[in-house]
């Protein structure tokens, strides 16, 4: 496998492959039933509403083999901007080929260039290979925190309290 790879910003024309990769990633994590997004949601919310950004990584023949979805958030404790990595995925046949590393390099550069003080993301505890990958970068892991989320169907009850 060649070491040539290209990282680029996704465009609306890439919505179908982004959607396909989201579905593949969810299936690999046994979370396929949790995906409610449609390709149209990707087109509208990422490219029209600009809710997030997507980096694509291509191999030497410009086939797309992975992506990173990210957006900017705010940290109350530092009062600074944070790059939040929502999802990073590389096709199985291209893992350990430097593609994830290239995406992380680009994300780290974006974090600094946009004036962010950190990059942050979640990773399932069961995904040992991803955790090992992130550990090589010096990522900190916080065992004392839990993910809290109110799903859409429960929000009305909270909002009407």
Automatic annotation (TrEMBL):
Signal peptide: none annotated. The keyword Repressor does not apply. It comes from the Bacteria. GO terms for molecular function: N-acetyltransferase activity. The keyword DNA damage does not apply. Residues 5-155 form the N-acetyltransferase domain. Belongs to the acetyltransferase family. This is Ribosomal-protein-alanine acetyltransferase. It comes from Anaerobiospirillum thomasii.
